[in-house]
Amino acid sequence: MAAISPSPPSSIFAAPGRRFFDRRFPLLRRCSTAPRLAVSSRLFSSRSSPSGTNGFLEDPPPSSSGGDVLHAGPPPSPRSAEGVPVFVTLPANVVGLGGRIVNRKAMVASLKALSLAGVEGVVLEFWWGIVERDNPGVYDWGGYADLVSMASRHGLKVRAIMAFHQCGSGPGDPCWIPLPQWVLKEMDREPDLAYSDRYGRRNKEYISLGCDNLPVLKGRSPIQTYSDFMRSFRDTFKHFLGIVITEVQVGMGPAGELRYPSCPSEKLKQPSSPPELGEFQCYDKNMLASLTACAQNIGMPEWGYGGPLGVSHLTQNPEETTFFRSNGSWNSDYGKFFLEWYSGLLLLHGEILCMATTAIFLHTGVKIFAKVAGIYWHYLTCSHPSELTAGYYNTLTRDGYLPLARLFSKYKMILCCSCFDIQDAEEIKGSKSSPEGFLRQLVYAARMHNLPLSGENSGTILDDKSLDQVIKSSRLSSAGAYESSLSFNYVRMDRQLFDPHNWPRFTRFVRQMSNARTFQAKLDFRGRDQYHSSCSATEEVTRSFAFY
């Protein structure tokens, strides 16, 4: 059957119109007519919609995975509304490339220990490269269905991440999970499906947003493909949604974050990495076509040939560059034009995914999450170069996080961000980096739009200093006259978490975050004698992980 391209939104390469400096996306409001949310859950589907009330499926068909219908177990134990619930992200490779749980014994013991420690739930990445790995539209949810059932049996909630990105640095990485093989073949056939920098280096962590609405994936657009994936997930796990699977986080870019791959994700995951300026990712043909069209429509065609000049090398001092220095061209008419276009396309990509996700999961009882990157390198400079190349138009004179908070608040989503565990004092002296400054600004933007937050740690060091910093950062969201709900996700579970020195520290941290009443409620629900078996449970985990 031929793919049905969604009528809203139209191509991002359409003419931006006469008014360039408009509200919100001054450029992109003219490039695309944003659809309203009063739409069917089939809005971005590549299949025709069956007749039903308001276009919604009244009785979704069974999943194409061919498995049995899944049913939820008993609901998780009751929790107090007070305190900060703690989630733990499971290992990225908990489900192998073949679609099955890698070490079932270790996972059973781990979930038992987490439950006894008072953890609210687990975060599980549903990798596109595993579920739809071989052929388009053929989904294998088997290993993930087993994990959700296991979490349910241990009274743990599940936050499901729709992971449309690559994991790991390459085939030698034990956590290597590429994009689906059929997608990589399409990328080999058409390299411009991948992002490109000024040197022509391709990044295959995530499909370029320049082709969001183009039928480049076997007749489907990337947005249609992501939507079909989420729809299959919804239909497969419908009996768990709102009961066990209480949250869904939609991946919007590299590492699941709404950003450009300005530098490899593996570097961003290492807080000790030297700060980089990053590279603008606007050199694939679709991005260039959009830039050219926008430049021509404001009568400045010479601005549409590529990204800024004078950005220099990745690790160079920003003050030694002509674009990023304090009085550099980032603040010129050209700089404002380019950065507005670059960040505006990213916001439009995020809005399209917000609309698709909220439509698909409407009335399922799950909360929808989206994540932004914690990029704090060069935060104390005037131009904030590392944020600019990632797509966040945040400078000394412009708040780049208010538009993001406004976008997610519009669709009643929850904002996820990292850096809750890092202090400014840990940064390289003279680097002008500030994780605490970045987090304060982001929390302020969230409070301005009454946007709930979910925090994460950037490193995996389980020392008292890092955990105390998480507690301190968590208080930011409830400071002052405004207050928003908050949860915390510890990234991620490994054998070090269950080390005899680390586990008592972690369980104490969970109690401090959740507060004594929440923790006591869970003990009363499960029985006090089970809590006292926590130590033996962690010993079982340690033994199991020896073969992981």
UniProtKB/TrEMBL annotation:
E.C. numbers: 3.2.1.2
Keywords tagged on the record: Carbohydrate metabolism, Glycosidase, Hydrolase, Polysaccharide degradation
Any one Gene Ontology molecular-function term assigned to this protein's record: beta-amylase activity
Coiled coil (residue ranges): none
Region (Disordered) residue spans: 44-80
Pfam assignment, any one: Glyco_hydro_14
GO BP terms, alphabetized: polysaccharide catabolic process
Catalytic reaction(s) noted: Hydrolysis of (1->4)-alpha-D-glucosidic linkages in polysaccharides so as to remove successive maltose units from the non-reducing ends of the chains
Keyword Cytoplasm listed: no
Active site (UniProt): 257, 456
Enzyme type, top EC level: hydrolase
Positions of transmembrane segments: none
PANTHER family per record: BETA-AMYLASE, BETA-AMYLASE 1, CHLOROPLASTIC
Family: Belongs to the glycosyl hydrolase 14 family.
Name of the protein in question: Beta-amylase
